[in-house]
Amino acid sequence: MPQTDPQLTTDATQTRDLPAIPAGQITILAGPESAGLRVDRFLADAIGTMSRSRVKSLIDEGRVRRGEHVMREPAEQVRAGAVYRLDSPVPVAAQPEAQAIDFPILYEDSDLIVLDKPAGLVVHPAPGNLDGTLVNALLAHCGDTLPGIGGERRPGIVHRLDKDTSGVMVVAKTEQALATLSAAFAARDLDRAYLALCWGLPDPAAGDIEGAIGRDPRDRKRMALVRHGGKQALTHYKTLRAFHAAVTLLECRLATGRTHQIRVHLSSRGHPIVGDPVYLRRMPAASRNLPEPARSTLLDFPRQALHATRLGFAHPRTGAALSFETAPPADMLELIAELSGNT
User: What backbone phi and psi angles, to 5 degrees, belong to 270?
Assistant: First the structure.
């Protein structure tokens, strides 16, 4: 039986009795009998203690290699004689702990909570953010009623916002609410709008941005428009106000909901969001049009200037129309005031 080493090498033909896989690198040699199999199924079967869906997620995260080649497609066929390496991250505790963390509540009843998520608050625990998340705060707020609603790792979570994106979110407090709200999000049967400050002046001033989004093949921590293997995405946008021919305040509405969708779509058009640490890689040329101190203020903004400003949906039990709208947080309002010349 192989040892539970940080590095584990195994023959795919002798793995059924493997112990639980530790964090570290797993190396698997594909024999001739495995040629032509889907790589996700092959690796899951070879390891024996890891599900196929978990292998797929590791591929999506860029944690699986064939030789020195980063795997991108779970359905790729296995090559006989190839060496496959999986980087298994440190496991996260199955049940998050309740932590008393304040968060702004806009509305609450026995079925759901609507809140205004602050920028900087991670929605659910994950490697790198094991606690101090919205889930930890919700568990403390709801007590014994929330655990298990939708699973232990993300109890009550219907949708998510990026860590540094602020704005309106809804959380389910019952299984019925979770199922109904999740179906509404999947069908886009709701009113959902974002405010974004982007560099440059989009042309036309209102329109659509469409393109499939998937992992960036050159940087697996980023998303990008891709020709193969991505998911179709559509963003509607309109200009609310332009400043100094350098920065635009947009309202964006999602026809689909993909990871980093607004950030990727705007960046793909040459209009990255102000302060975006992932998709703004160089000083934007449009910044030359800004007077000081507005120019320095925007260039130094430490997060993406993106706010989920409005969320409307049917109540999952009563069917009543609910709608919630919040202004951007203080730091984003200060940017707008700086651009408007009111400070």
Answer: 85, 20
